[in-house]
Each structure stands twice: as structure tokens, then as C-alpha cells.
Design brief:
14% strand; 47% helix; alpha+beta; three-stranded antiparallel sheet; 3 helices
Length: 59
């Protein structure tokens, strides 16, 4: 179940614990995780954690 993490200010996939700006992306992530028992790189790359990591590497 996708939850809104008020401490993080974003929606979180409960399976992989990644955060997303929209509930729709978090639901896509969770649906993929449940079906394939893995993360989808195209979806995970849109997570807040991935975006933050890319930004920190580009400094």
C-alpha cells in the first residue's frame, strides 16, 4: 500500500521504501515490485532519492 510520508513530504512505496512526488508514481512502483519481486529502473530513477543522488553527483 502506498502511503504519504509526512516526514519526507512525499508518497512512499512500502515495498522498496522509495519516495515519489506523486501518488501515481508510487503506485506504479509498488505494482511493479509486487508483480516482479524487483524494482524497475525506469520507475526507480524517478524517485526522489535517485534524483537527489544524481544532483549531488553533478555538483
Amino acid at each position: 500500500m502506498v502511503i504519504y510520508d509526512s516526514n519526507f513530504g512525499a508518497y512512499m512505496c512500502e515495498l522498496c521504501m522509495l519516495h515519489y512526488e506523486t501518488e501515481e508514481l508510487a503506485k506504479k512502483c509498488e505494482a511493479w515490485d509486487r508483480l516482479h519481486d524487483s524494482c524497475n529502473l525506469a520507475i526507480a530513477s524517478r524517485s526522489i532519492e535517485a534524483i537527489s543522488r544524481r544532483e549531488s553527483l553533478n555538483k
